[in-house]
Each structure stands twice: as structure tokens, then as C-alpha cells.
């Protein structure tokens, strides 16, 4: 197998489907896609697409009162039947049958209705059209170049984009933003005179039910339109955006909408004109409304020019302080896109309080599949358990709804590129697949989803391979956490590129990413009583739980509290001993995973195995570097020796 052709949909995954007689009823472009998929399976594995007579599989568009993306599946009388109200649902139903494999044609079961829990399941690509002198072509991308852009223009050959659309549909993703949220000069023009390139991409993704979105600069009326202002309440500005939207929809009739990063990290926004985020988002929503589009307004807004000596300023507070007072002021076509934690995709941080504070606002939860702070697709770090914890968190306590129930949409920063294995680290494919499946059903068991990915990627895999993949993936997020930043404190990375350890890398910077370690203790006091007050942004019971070091969960202790090194955790260990022990444990677990993978060499295609083995060598090296730097730093800072007498440099 090779990464371009297979990922989690190698031809073998369609084997049970291709050996059948299949009847397909319905019309339209996506029904055509279903026909093509089934026909290819039949050509490879036998079977046929029939027009009448007997059949094993019926795929049918019916007027059965189903929603736009819903489908039903049943097996009765020796026939498996999938029904949907349109081609979108039928395509998802087909891939459901593929996931079931031989089970789809075994036994019997009554009609089941399958529907996505979220309206939109989107990937944001941080791709630059032109290679940016600082950010390169894909900002925070660890899988090669862009799938969409090459040498300053849209790619001429879209075969890989077409394959990408197929992979996305197979896991339930229905939208893609094709450019960086940090919109540079070249990318800004995609909105106007270069919209034809966006249309070409949209044409390729459309047969798989994937709508195209575009990141735009808030300053576009000035940058592109020659206006003197981008004030969202200025009539000329509002008309400029309305005209721009009309141009976009003339080229891409099913265009999804805009993604906007405003008033954040130097990007322009409504603050320049004394306006609110609701003013800015609603202006764009009004321009898109006649066409059925939406604006995704990112809530990643904070002061990135902080004074590290000022402990009253807290980056974690920023999103809530900016947006919670605006609840109810956003238009129906404006989606507030909120990072799952208050900081920046750390390996461990609390769920953002914004997600429980805006019941009258349409919310999207944003996660990061590309592993910026979790190993950059050089370390294996399957994020399914992390995302599942976020989606299962109940901001109002056990009696209230979960984040997965509150969010109408889920968005991930994509981890795919033009690397032969799609994601750089072949095992990072599991993150992309898992995101799609959790976006479809946020309460799904992530380990069952991982089973799906394994079954699709390695059809008919022997038990030893399945067990080995689980051994290296199941606990990989917690392994990575063990050898990197401890107890929720975050960062401690090299500045700029964010790869590898530097305990004080951001400690005296303006970015607001501090651990405040001194000779007596470590952590950030975010209590209401003595700290920044961040803990009070949560509703009860969480505000009370986080307020006290005695009740705060250990894994978040240093995020919420500055404590002595001798503070005793619920495990019975002191903070300093926990730091030492988990660094050593993390390295040992990384070394064990490397050994497990080496033992699978006879079960995995050679190029696939070699790439993963190469990445494991880097992971073990990196884990040891993290262990040595973190342990050495805190031994010297605290003066407290390791209770087990291990070598700390």
C-alpha cells in the first residue's frame, strides 16, 4: 500500500462490498459518486451493479422524511438496505457499510437511523498560497506542502485533492477552509480576482459532499477595495462585503462562508474602529445571509504584548472577557469558533469556560489535529481521548449538557499535506479520522473509533497487528504528557517553532505563557481569592473545584495554582517527585512503544513501517531530551533530590 492511494480507505476495505449484487436508486452528483465507488469495488473484487432483479445491497434515495445528511441502514431477508433523502446521506451510508465490512452482510437487524450530531464538521487548513518568508507554505503544518496550492497558484493536478475529499467523506467531514487564518497579501485576493482558483478546488471536493470555505482579512475593503476604512458600521463597507459575497457565490454557488481571525496576534479587526466583535461578525453574516453562508469568527483573541512581571494579567481570561458579555448579540449566521481550551492547544488544559457561558450564541469547538504542541507529527500522540474528554465535559455539572451537546459545529486545524503518507507520521492519520467520527457523534467511544481506523487502514489485519497498534496508540497522549510540561502548566517549548523543550522558552516573553517557577514552587495562581480570578469564569461546581488546590484535579493543578514543590498530590507524591517520576515514566513508555512497533515489521508494508520506525527514533530522542531538561531545571530550581536516586544531569 502507499499513503496517496490508501490512508484509511485501501481497496481491500471495499472487498466485502464488491463481492455483492448492488442496486442503486436515485440521481444527482453524489449518487453518481456512490455509483462510481461501488463500480470500482465490483471491478476489483467481483459482483456487479444491477438495474433490477435480485440484489444483496440496496442503496436508495427515498422521500422518507430524513434530514439532509441522515441515512438508515437495515438487514432483513438477506438484503442490506441503506436509504437517504439525498446523495449526501447515501454517500455517508455507503461508507457506513464499508466500515461494517463483512458484518454488513451477516445476520439481520432492524432499521437504524444514523444522523450527525453537529451541523458542520470542518477542517481549517493553515495553508499559504505563496510561500511565506516566515511561516512557509503551511503554517504549523507537519506533513509537507499544501494540498491545494503550489508555486503561488492553485495546483494544476487535483487528483490528490479528489482523493482527500473521498477520505473526508469517509469519516464524516463536510467542510474545508482552504487557506490560512492569518491572511497575507496574496491570500487576500482569493476573495476577488482569484476566486476562480477557489472555485476549481470546490468543484473537486463537491462530489464528496465537502463545501469550501475561505479565510478572509477583516481589512479587505481597504486592502482590496481601496476604501479608507473597514468600519463594520460604515454603509460603504457593508456594501463592499455584500458585493464581494455576490462575486464569490457567482463562482461557487455552494460556498460555505468566511473564516475570520480578527484583533488577534496582529490581525486587523473591529477594535480599530471602536466596534465590538459582534459588530464585525454580524456585518459579514449579513453579507453572506442571502446566499446561505456563515461566518466563523474565531474567539482566539488576547493581548500578546504582556508584561511578564504583571501577574494580574492572564491570557487564559481573554476569550471569556471579550466574548461572554456579547452572548445573544451575534447574528444567526455568525458562528463563534472557540478553542477547546483557554490557552493554545496544550497537551493538557481545562475546557474553555466560554463553551458554557454563551447559550444564545452559535458555537463551534476548535481543536488542533496538526500536533503543534503535541509532537508535531514526529511523535505519536493519538488525541482521541483528549478530544473525547473535552466533548464530554459538562460546564454546569453532571445535570447539565456536555460540550458535545452545546456545540453545533466542530472544527479542527488539519494535519494533512502533500506528504506521501498524508500526515507525515502515518499513525497521525488516526487523528484526522478520529476527529471526523467524533464530530459526527461527540459521545462516541474514541477507542471504538480507533478500531474502525485500524480495520479500514489494515483490512484483515491479524490480531497481533491490531494489538500492537493499540499498544502504541491507546496511551500515547498521556505518554507525551508525562515527558513534557507537567500538571497542566503548559508550554515550556522552544519559542517560535514550538518543537522540543525549553522550560523558560516563553517565561520572560510578551505572550502570556508563564509557569512562574521559583525556588519555592511552581504554577499560576488563577484563583478568585488570591490570583487572576480565572477560576471564577466557570459556573459551579467547577469554579469551586478549581478555586482550591485541595480540590483541583491533579492534572490541572499548576494551571490553577502556584504551590510549593512539597505539595502532596492525591497520588501521595509531592509535586517535585511527580515531575521526576513522570519524566522517567514517559521515556520508558516511548521506548516500549518503539520496541512494539519494531516487532510488527513483518505485518506492515515496508515503506509504512520504515517511516513510523524513523519517527519513533526521533520520539525517543526527544522524550529523553525533555526528561533531562525538565528534571535538571527543577532539581536546580528546587534543590530537592530525586527520591529514587536516578541520574539527573
From TrEMBL:
Source organism per UniProt: Streptomyces vulcanius
Domain Glycosyl hydrolase family 67 catalytic, chain residue ranges per copy: 113-397
Protein name per UniProt: Alpha-glucuronidase
Domain of life the protein comes from: Bacteria
InterPro entries linked: A-glucoronidase_C_sf, GH, Glyco_hydro_67_C, Glyco_hydro_67_cat
Glycosyl hydrolase family 67 C-terminal domain sequence ranges: 423-646
